[in-house]
Design goal:
alpha+beta; globular; 8 helices; three-stranded antiparallel sheet
Amino acid sequence: MAGVLNFRSFPTLRPFSSRRVPDGRASIRASSELSETPLSSASVSTKEDKKQDFSASSSAAFSPPPNFVAPQPKRFSVRPDKILDILGASLALLFRLGTGVFVSGYSASFVSKDKIPPDQYALEIAGFKVKETSKLGPRPEKPIEIYEFESCPFCRKVREIVAVLDLDVLFYPCPKNGPNFRPKVAQMGGKQQFPYMVDPNTGVSMYESDDIIKYLVQKYGDGTVPLTLSLGLLTTLSEGFAMIGRMGKGSFYTPSRLPPQPLEIWAYEASPFCKVVREVLVELELPHILHSCGRGSPKRQILYQKAGHFQVPYLEDPNTGVQMFESAEIVEYLRATYVL
């Protein structure tokens, strides 16, 4: 059932092997993606058994900033000094026509308050509650792994289908000059080109955003690529225009400490509040598990039960024990904790 979540644990990073992309994959339309010279939902993980370090230098202890107190969530509130950031990030909603706001098979109806139990998440409007449903495909047992960076239009295409399919993904950020995961992509696939996907459920790995999208909808959806992701050059151009308001953000590496465990972020691609947090996660090259939860996602109820409130982004950092809402404060926390 789509609404039943399988809580399971998994190692943060299995040993990197020289996994080659099958012949024909490595070179298909290589010039259309961002590349450099060569050199797998409703499955929500727990924090158990994440013991393997990402690198030998990650053994230092991590702790929250001095006197840190997690902020109280404030719905539909923007901190005054972040208004321009959120407005810039919101341009993507216009250029991408809301792609990634709703999960696959989304439908909604207004019902009276007494039709939905008080312990169940539901949006309330004008004295009514909104009953939201979706039709999701098979759920991967393990999170899909994707190597990418925020300001790449081809990577954004893949992040949008992740939101539509409501998949959990273990992201390995690959900002320019990043020392950790860009070289690993070249080791595994033969070249530094992004996005690069690894599905640990099937052993499939591939480059090329369009091929990744087709694979994901066939394996974890209904086989149909959404119209806004199937328009070829028009899709790519609109993805590029969507980033105008945050040009260059999430592109370049900021020296940071690599934590032993991936962070966890509850978010979805179309949210401007989530975007500004993702930019910093990428710049600091912090691996993170994205629990995608667009409108209609059953994971909204999971977060509602977990935190007593639904709002995104919501950060869980197993390296420090911090759990927090509020995008502006999350950004400040990440910089204070991980920047060298």
